């Protein structure tokens, strides 16, 4: 490791005057990490930082726990604007265009010099790179990434006369299963819903699963055009709305994201859609046998990816940037990625991590952990455009309007598309 | 015009020295507070005012003067109008109810009742809790099916309802949380004021045979007016300032049904990074609040009896 770094430093001479400096004196890198309060995750990150320091005595890693993803990007961008940004941060992969437009990050390609580096960059699951690359450059390195999966309660399946080991595989099955699993009281209140897909806060993410299954993308690769009013999008939204309005197997109105796992534990929902990041939570709190499955297929299977990437700040000193790159390479090595997957439930970001003994054993003991990986072949990029949060909100508002019944799916998507167009035209 | 006797030279000297040394002292005493205020209140307000006439600076093109463009966009933005309407409804919902409740609770715990301290503490507790924690608790109160409210309703045979997930009830729900949080705080001010009222007034009223209501209406309430003004101003400010629970409970949803002005400012500024639009909206909010505070002082001041 050290030797390679040294060779790399001498080979690239001139521009890399900083590299030898890394070897001699100590470089400190600051690292914004999105977690609100102390707990198991901060301990893990602290451990990783100190292990990395042991392997690389010339580099000090200073993790700064910056709150939610939203709070972290606010802090990172504010620091960037004041000229003193963190060397590296883990931020949402979907914030890529925002970070590029603010000129806050530099491409990872700037640090790729050896064949080994190139091989490393190609080692990630392609689905995770979709939100990390644009215009031929790589801007983020996948770290804590997830997809949406379906969790089902095996006891309730048995009660309803369904095979407890067979989850729904298609949209039609999802409806028929849910019908069997829904218990309605005489007063029209359900004591148990067949299925629940949360729609508060960021409904676009879960909706993207449906839209992908209906056979369409929501935006182009350049991130300057959205397809909110396509027929398939309306079809996907109609399916979602119909779950509650027509089939009455899904709660009406907006379903809170935060309480959805709890609804599942309380047996108020027999099937839920939520992130693989909830795997450990469900495993620890569900008092009944449960299964984890890929999302059912419409025209095809599909789910967006989600979660956070590593970024390197443009304004950080060159020596720190190099050190941050080294840290990234270290923390995304197959063994680390495997460990991270076991410890947190996030999907290991590269296929070869699943060949490591640690992860092999974990998957054998707990096969549900492999579902997210297997779904990656159907995964698409998470919705991400220029002025990302504004364009995404246009979709969120439309989805919520349709789900609460204030607008028809057609009208809602037409309005969302019009708003997105208004924002995006100047990026073409 | 009345002419004054010319001052003696000694008086002139005294006048020129004494006031100035007092002035220096005064200014020195004011300085720490002034510095903080100027640095963290006046300057940012002024900077916001200036920024609101410029476009949002982007790396490729800096801020340019755009005049009233940002304000024009606010007027054209349907979400602004919705947030404004929501905020007015929120204010109408929170201000009178929380003040009324506060007054009621204060009068109640001012009397000699058993367990008075306990009741006072119970009323004050919501104020002490952090809003974020409170909002998370209320989130579970409102949860359909097994939330506290749903359980209460089902005990009486009612159907479970998705309170926060419906456009019709979401705003009402967050209004109730704000009232619950605020009323206890205002109660403390009323309670303090009630204790200042001389007991002899109450005794006199009893001797005169005045009813409890008559005594409250003609004696206690008028004497509480300065407190009411203070509480009212605070309630108005809070109605436009409280957004923590919105962020936790609804994030402005469903479909902007609970978006309040300050929440919208945060969204524009720190989610969309359209800082100029946020600055312009901040000015609109500041101007509105300033006008309300001024009106309150001008119109209510006259009707208040200060002892």
Can you walk me through this structure?
The complex is a heterodimer of chains A (428) and B (307). By secondary structure, chain A is α/β, with parallel strands linked by helices. Chain A contains 19 helices and 12 strands. In chain A, strands 1, 2, 3, 6, 7, 8, 9, 10, 11 and 12 form a 10-stranded mixed β-sheet that branches. A two-stranded antiparallel sheet of chain A has the order 4-5. In chain A, a hairpin with a 5-residue loop joins β7 and β8. The radius of gyration of chain A is 23 Å and the shape is globular. Chain B is built from 13 helices and no strands. In chain B, 30% of the residues are buried. Chain B is 73% helix and 0% strand. Chain B has one domain: MetI-like (MetI-like fold), CATH 1.10.3720.10. Chain B is flat and about 80 Å long. The chains are: A alpha/beta (428), B mainly alpha (307). At the A-B interface, α4 and α18 of A face α12 of B.
> Quick one: CATH superfamily of chain B?
MetI-like
Largest sheet properties of chain B: none
Tally of DSSP β-strands of chain A: 12
What is the SS-derived class of chain A?
alpha/beta
| Helix count from the secondary structure assignment of chain A | 19
Oligomer: heterodimer
How many alpha or pi helices of chain B?
A: 13
In which range does the helix fraction of chain A lie? 40-55%
Number of strands of chain B: 0
CATH class of the largest domain in chain A: Alpha Beta
Total of domains of chain B: 1
CATH topology heading of the largest domain in chain A: D-Maltodextrin-Binding Protein, domain 2
The value of Rg of chain B in angstroms is 26 Å
Query: Which spans of chain A have pLDDT < 50 for at least 5 consecutive residues?
Result: 1-23
């Amino acid at each position: 490791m050290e030797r390679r770094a040294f060779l790399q430093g001498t080979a690239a001479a001139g521009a890399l005057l900083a590299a030898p400096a890394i070897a001699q004196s100590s470089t400190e890198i600051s690292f914004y990490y999105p977690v609100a309060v102390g707990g198991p995750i901060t301990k893990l990150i602290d451990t990783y930082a100190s292990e990395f320091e042991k392997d690389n005595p010339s580099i000090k890693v200073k993790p700064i726990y910056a709150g939610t993803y939203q709070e972290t990007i606010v802090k990172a961008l504010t620091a960037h604007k004041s000229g003193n940004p963190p060397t590296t941060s883990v931020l949402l992969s979907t914030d890529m265009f925002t970070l590029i437009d603010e000129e806050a990050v530099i491409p990872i390609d700037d640090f790729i010099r050896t064949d080994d580096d190139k091989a490393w960059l190609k080692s990630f699951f392609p689905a995770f790179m979709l939100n990390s690359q644009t215009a031929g450059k790589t801007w983020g390195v996948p770290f804590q990434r997830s997809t949406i999966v379906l969790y089902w309660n095996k006891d309730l399946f048995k009660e309803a006369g369904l095979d407890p080991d067979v989850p729904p595989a298609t949209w039609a099955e999802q409806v028929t299963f849910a019908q069997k699993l829904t218990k309605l009281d005489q007063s029209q209140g359900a004591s148990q819903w067949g299925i629940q897909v949360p729609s508060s806060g960021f409904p676009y993410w879960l909706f993207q699963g449906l839209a992908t299954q209906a056979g369409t993308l929501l935006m182009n690769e350049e991130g300057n055009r959205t397809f909110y009013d396509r027929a398939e999008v309306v079809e996907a939204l109609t399916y979602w709305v119909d779950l509650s309005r027509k089939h009455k197997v899904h709660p009406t109105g907006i379903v809170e994201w935060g309480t959805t796992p709890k609804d599942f534990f309380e047996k108020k929902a027999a099937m839920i859609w939520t992130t693989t990041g909830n795997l450990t939570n469900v495993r620890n709190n569900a008092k009944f046998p449960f299964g984890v499955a890929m999302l059912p297929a419409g025209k095809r299977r599909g789910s967006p990816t989600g979660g956070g990437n590593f970024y390197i700040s443009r304004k950080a000193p060159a020596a720190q940037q190099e050190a941050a790159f080294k840290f990234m390479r270290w923390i995304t090595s197959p063994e680390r990625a495997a460990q991270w997957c076991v410890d947190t439930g996030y999907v290991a970001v590269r296929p070869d991590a699943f060949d490591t003994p640690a992860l092999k054993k974990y998957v054998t003991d707990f096969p549900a952990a492999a579902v997210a990986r297997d779904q990656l072949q159907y995964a698409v990029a998470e919705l991400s455009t220029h002025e990302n949060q504004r364009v995404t909100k246009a979709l969120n508002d439309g989805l919520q309007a349709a789900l609460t019944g204030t607008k028809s799916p057609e009208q809602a998507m037409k309005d969302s598309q019009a708003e997105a167009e208004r924002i995006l035209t100047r990026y073409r | 015009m009345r002419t004054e006797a010319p001052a003696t030279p000694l008086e002139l000297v005294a006048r020129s020295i004494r006031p100035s040394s007092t002035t220096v002292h005064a200014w020195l005493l004011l300085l720490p507070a002034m510095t903080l205020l100027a640095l963290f209140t006046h300057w940012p307000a002024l900077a916001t005012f200036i920024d609101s006439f410029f476009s949002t600076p982007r790396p490729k093109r800096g801020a340019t003067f755009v005049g009233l463009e940002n304000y024009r966009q606010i007027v054209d933005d349907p979400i602004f109008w919705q947030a404004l309407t929501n905020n007015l409804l929120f204010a109408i919902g929170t201000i009178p109810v929380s003040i009324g409740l506060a007054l009621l609770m204060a009068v109640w715990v001012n009397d000699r009742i058993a367990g008075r301290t306990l009741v006072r503490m119970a009323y004050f507790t919501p104020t002490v809790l952090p809003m974020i924690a409170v909002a998370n608790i209320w989130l579970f109160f409102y949860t359909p099916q097994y939330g506290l409210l749903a359980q209460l309703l089902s005990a009486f045979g009612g159907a479970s309802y998705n309170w926060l997930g419906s456009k019709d009830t979401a705003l009402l729900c967050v209004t109730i949380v704000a009232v619950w949080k605020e009323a206890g705080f205002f109660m403390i001010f009323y309670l303090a004021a009630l204790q200042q009222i001389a007991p002899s007034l109450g005794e006199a009223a009893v001797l005169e045979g005045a009813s409890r209501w008559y005594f409250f209406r003609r004696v206690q309430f008028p004497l509480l007016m300065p407190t009411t003004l203070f509480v009212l101003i605070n309630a108005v400010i809070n109605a436009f300032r409280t957004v923590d629970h919105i962020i936790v409970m609804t994030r402005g949803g469903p479909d902007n049904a609970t978006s309040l002005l300050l929440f919208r400012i945060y969204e524009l500024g720190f989610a969309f990074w359209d800082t100029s639009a946020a600055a312009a909206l901040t000015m609109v909010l500041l101007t509105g609040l300033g006008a309300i505070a001024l009106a309150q002082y001008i119109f209510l001041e006259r009707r208040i009896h200060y002892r």
